[in-house]
Amino acid sequence: MRLEKYRHIMILNALCKADAALTAEELSELTKSSLRTIKSDIVELNPLCKEEGFSIRSYKAKGYQIEVHDEKEYKRDCFRIAQKTKRNSTQKKASEPYWIGGQIVK
Length: 106
What we know:
Layout: H1 6-17, H2 24-31, H3 35-51, E1 54-59, E2 63-68, H4 71-88, E3 98-100, E4 103-105
Antiparallel strand pairs: 1-2, 3-4
Helix pairs in contact: 1-4, 2-3
């Protein structure tokens, strides 16, 4: 999965770790972005996620949650996303390349 923005990684990491749905407000606070940006990011991320065996579902009055279609692919990508988030928590440089799903991303 090619992720263009660190914010996308943060969103997916939060959703992968969550036991329940996360609201746009919660994701907005986490990423320090507007609600509109979060909603646009979800729309942008969903086609990429579906290629990897999962999707981001929206539940009215509850928020967003991961729906798994291919458990193996999902676990692999969540692990890589978590590793990327952990590495970048101390160095948030947008120009620094990183690996997600076997592809280098800048």
